[in-house]
Amino acid sequence: MRFTSEQRLDDGVLEREFTLGEIPGILWTPGSASAPAPLILLGHPGGLHKMYPRLAARARHCAAEGFAAATIELPGGGDRPRSAAAEQARADLHRALETGVPVDDEIVDRLVLPLVEKAVPEWRATLDALLSLPEIGGPVGYAGGVIAIGVRLAVVEPRISAAGLFAGSYVPRATFEEAREVTIPLHVLLQWDDEGNDRQAALDLFDAFGSKEKTLQANMGGHTGVPQFAGEDAHRFFTRHLK
Amino acid sequence: MRFTSEQRLDDGVLEREFTLGEIPGILWTPGSASAPAPLILLGHPGGLHKMYPRLAARARHCAAEGFAAATIELPGGGDRPRSAAAEQARADLHRALETGVPVDDEIVDRLVLPLVEKAVPEWRATLDALLSLPEIGGPVGYAGGVIAIGVRLAVVEPRISAAGLFAGSYVPRATFEEAREVTIPLHVLLQWDDEGNDRQAALDLFDAFGSKEKTLQANMGGHTGVPQFAGEDAHRFFTRHLK
């Protein structure tokens, strides 16, 4: 892990860009940390530059609660090399959406599963590097999308002790099976009136999770309109489980 | 409204039993209130004496947040006169449950609708009396079951500005229609693994509500196992809307 830039934000949060091999990422740490901070990994749908304002806002909220936060670019996202197969799957998805036919499971599998296969080892390598920093101490949470990546991480990465997931569409069939193996506490956000989202799939996935403590919070406000109090509830979830 | 007993609880909360005509009830007010307190009406499934420990715990939580809280006995509950029709409906319900046949909508209508017709005017008369007390100032919230009563109150009683409802089974068909007329902010709690509850009916009812701000929070823990943090979230909901 190599830090490539460093700036102190106006609320005292230290924001550092890094690269881990070919993978760009950002680490935010609280301004005044007396002890190693617990860490929240911020998931997103890819495109770090475009997502920066929302990620930075979430990270600063984390830092205000005493958490470090980090994110990395997804495989194929931003300036990272695209895979021809993923581009084809994306084109097939858009064609299905434009013609109004139901999106075939097979397209979803081609779009999401290779992403999970590549992204999860990258997140784990990032975790290795972050946990070697003296200012970060764990425990670790995962927050955000892509939900199939969050589910896989929750199953295979024992250092992740709690996950806050955004319920989204295009969940591969295999993810519903994997969800049964998840046992860590979960906080799932669902935008009830998100017309681009498959609500029933989100409810089925929530039902499938094997965790004894799982909370589904459904709110109004459309795809990007998660209410402020829902964000605060999610932070309280992490405070309960990571502190 | 006639107060029949008065005691100061160990946390300073003043608990007063009252009668309003034939209806027994309990009022809890914060120990140290400098201004008239907003009020939360505590709904329950009937049987004030049996429900007392849980109602008192909820009321003390309300008082700790600066709310007054009040409850009344349901028609036919506790020592109040039973109606032969309601008893017959209850017997028919139990017979259906014992034989494992699906509970007919017609039984639910006979069981719940007359209760709504009687209980809602009683709650409104109680509200008249409570709001005439100098220590209670409004605004007013309704919290708890019976959900069909909460829905009717939310539609017909303009003094109720927010409602926290427990999703329960045995929702009359008419209540789904009425739910569309509800416009006040709602916080709906659903115990996801409550085997005695019809989860799909709860989700359908949440979907039907006309409110622009509505939150569904689903948790694990069975019928009576609402997690502590869920109670705290519900109180934050009332604090957002009644203060």
TrEMBL record, chains A, B:
SUPFAM superfamilies: alpha/beta-Hydrolases
Listed name of the protein: Alpha/beta hydrolase
Organism: Phytohabitans aurantiacus
